Amino acid sequence: MAVPKRKMSRSNTRHRRAQWKATTPQLVPITVDGSVYQVPQRLAKAYERGLLRPEG
User: Fold this and answer.
1) Interior/surface letters 34-53, b for 16+ CB within 10 angstroms, e for the rest
2) Cβ-proximal residues to 42 (8 Å cutoff; 6+ apart), any chain
3) What pLDDT shows up at residue 56?
4) How far apart (Å, rounded) are the C-alpha atoms in residues 3 and 10?
5) pLDDT tens-digit profile of 9-28?
6) Of the candidates 52, 4, 54, 14, the residue with the CA atom closest to the CA atom of residue 34
7) Which of 7, 10, 11, 13 is the most buried (most CB within 10 A)?
């Protein structure tokens, strides 16, 4: 396991952590039972196969 050799300053730690940002998932339209839903692209196949049910 990697262990830091020296203590990192509070300023540097906070500056590094501030760079991580959540992004909104890219939504794609899919048709399930004649209705069109906007779902995340990475889950589109699961909805089409019926593994997940879209919420109305």
Assistant:
1) eeebebeeebbeebeeeeee
2) 25
3) 64
4) 17
5) 999 999 988 888 888 899 99
6) 54
7) 13
